[in-house]
Amino acid sequence: MTTLLTLQNETLGWGETPVLTGVSLSVQQGERIALLGPSGVGKSTLLHTMFSRLADQRVALAPQEAGLVAQLSVFHNVWMGCLDDFSTPRNLRTLLWPSATERAKVEDVLSQTGLGGLGRRKVSALSGGQKQRVALSRALLRRGAVVIADEPVSAVDPAQARDLLRTVTQTFQTSVLALHDVALAQDYATRIIGLKAGKVAIDCAADALSQADIMSLYS
Questions:
Q1: What's the CA dihedral at 72, 180, 187, 177 to 10 degrees?
Q2: CB 57: neighbour CB atoms within 10 A?
Q3: Nearest to 190 by CA among 22, 44, 19, 1
Q4: How high is the pLDDT of residue 15?
Q5: Which of 78, 140, 189, 203 has its CA 20 to 30 A from that of 167?
Q6: Do β-strands 32-36 and 174-178 pair in parallel, antiparallel, or remain unpaired?
């Protein structure tokens, strides 16, 4: 099994402010990792570090704040996932006059996330759940070796969340997702990393953990 990244006894944070200490873990190709823990414990910090350490891989990113441009259309926000594949003149042309082929590529991923037909709508007119799905659609369009997503389905209903994570699994060989729904994480993940009090408190196979083990992260 190929190791994609390794962290060894590291302190992670923002600037000089530590958020997580003593972090030692690796990510293997083919893993589906769910990152769990209470709000503010450092899940976004760990995801940001993983993303930066995977610079030699093609990584699709769906950040918590979505990184969407509200004034632009759904199409343009999704197309941002592959901007670095093309030249600046090509991207400027797509901004002004997207071709039928480009629109069809975006429509394909929008149909996978339940947003079919909304490509021309401004992101500012969407609900919170729809914005999350735009961000996830952008990651699906980009594709790549790994997807890193921060609470990508927290604003959609459980059935839709499961469908979206099934699509993620079918698209990406390796994934690291911060999730808020414990049952969803257990269904989706092959491995769970749990954070508590600035440390990695759990790191093991998802099927080896009980509900009580996971809920201890939140007590």
A1: 50
A2: 14
A3: 1
A4: 81
A5: 203
A6: parallel
Residue 129 CA to residue 152 CA, distance in Å, equals 9
Q: How confident is the model at residue 82 (pLDDT cuts 50, 70, 90)?
A: very high
Residue-wise burial string across 151-175, b where 16 or more C-beta atoms lie within 10 A, e elsewhere: bbbbebeeeebbbbbebbeebbebb
Alpha helices (H) in the chain, listed in sequence order? 43-53, 74-79, 88-96, 100-112, 128-142, 158-171, 182-188, 211-215
Q: What mean pLDDT is predicted for residues 194-205?
A: 96
Instruction: Report residue 144 as tokens.
Output: 């790549």
The tokens describing 215, both together, are 């809920």
C-alpha 173/C-alpha 147 separation (Å) is: 9
What values do phi and psi take at 10, rounded to 5? -105, 150
Reply yes or no on whether the pLDDT at 192 is more than 80: yes
Q: Which of 208, 163, 202 is nearest to 184 (CA)?
A: 163
